[in-house]
Amino acid sequence: MNIRTLCLMLLLGSPFFATQAQETSSKGVWTLEEAVNYAVENNLTIQRAALNAEQSDAALLQSQINLAPTLNAQASHNYQFGRNADPTTNTFINQQIRTNNFGVQASVPLFNGFANRTSIKAQKSELDASKADIETARNDTRLSVAANYLNILLAKELLQRAQYQVANSQEQTERTRRLVDAGAAPEANLLELESQLATDELSVINAQNQLDLAELQLQQLLQLPVSDNFNVVTPELDDLLATDQIELSLPTAVYLEAVNTQPQIKAADLRVEGALWNLKVAKGQYYPRLSLNGSLFSGFSSARVRTLTSSSEPSSPNLIYIQTRDEGYLPVPASLFESGSSGSGGVEQVPFWEQINSNFNQSVGLSLTIPILNNWQARTNVANANINARRAQITAQETRNQLRQTIEQAYNDARAAAKRYAASQRQITALRENARVAEQRFNVGALNALDYSLSRNNLNNAESNLLEAKYDYIFKKKVLDFYEGKPIKL
């Protein structure tokens, strides 16, 4: 299925597309690579960029065809009434005339300031830039899918962590209830733990909502209808989390690599090139234009007649013999002639094909146009083309600056995320030990429920922060790797 057909199906709400999307969404578990590939194939922004490339391709083809001769045929069928000029004799007559004209005209541009050939180069640059735009849209889609995919993984781990906390709170609540019933613990401890259990259960609901939202966002990005069957594969991420030896490429080195590989830079440079070619096209208007022209023409007029001549041979009183073009002498009634006697003349309309043959003419010639004064149109076009070229150069520099700044930001983000993840790991180690000791003291009655819940909440918050830091580091590192030309995969 090509892009054009797919776009039409989307616009028309094709049942086929709806069925295909539903079947795809019901496939169940998605890997990151599958999600990225599907998004690249079905993203509407990419399809719009592909249509722009098709349009640029059509413009390039037209600029190439402009080098070919022009050839046009014409035909007319007319009736004239009243006083008119006979087109075959240029004499005025007062009668109805039927005319037919047939012609073929051709023209070949020999020289026009190299405008046509230069225009081909400009359109070629625009086509290549449009293709680079497609790859830019694909890269943007890949990054968006990766970010949403990691959001789902984070939400899943947060949900699992919240569920574990609920199970732990339920266990502690049941144990404390038994102690309270036995009179070995104050009822305030039970009330505090029941409050903590309710808080943990609310955390589960919030985590489930966050997971649902993350899955919804990825399905929408994939142009899929929402399905409860949607899920993603949780890959092994240990190899991506070695932060004891953080090795991040310096932004300068990444930029030098990205400036030669990122499609948005290529597209900007190609548009500068195309603008410079268009400037030369505009300057071509200063030059004379030379073309070779030729035509073929013939026509028919009902007013064209010829005189008929009778023979000198004896004839009957009522007949005379006239000479015809194809059949020699033929007898005709003498009443057809003004004198009615032998030797007088008559007229007949010249037949259609005989006129077409006799009126056939050909012409060939050269046409030279020298621009002298055309309301400064050529000069204005050159000035506008020069402005467009300078504007394209500014855009190219802005694109480079934006890429450099994005890479610098990605480097700082990745470094900060790695440090945050490493610090969160150190923090979680201390808090886990503190929570373990607090639980032991609480079980033997040496710590009240409020302080125990506080230590557990601190641990829960630290574990949530650790999960967020982990996935934040993974994504920021993947962004930096992406600008180095590495594929996005887990």
From TrEMBL:
Coiled coil start-end: 382-441
SUPFAM superfamilies tied to this protein: Outer membrane efflux proteins (OEP)
Gene3D superfamilies: Outer membrane efflux proteins (OEP) (1.20.1600.10)
Location relative to the cell: Cell outer membrane
GO molecular function: efflux transmembrane transporter activity; porin activity
Annotated signal peptide: 1-21
One Pfam family recorded for the sequence: OEP
Main subcellular localisation: membrane
Keywords: Cell outer membrane, Coiled coil, Membrane, Signal, Transmembrane, Transmembrane beta strand, Transport
Full protein name: Outer membrane protein
Native source species: Catalinimonas alkaloidigena
Record lineage: Bacteria, Pseudomonadati, Bacteroidota, Cytophagia, Cytophagales
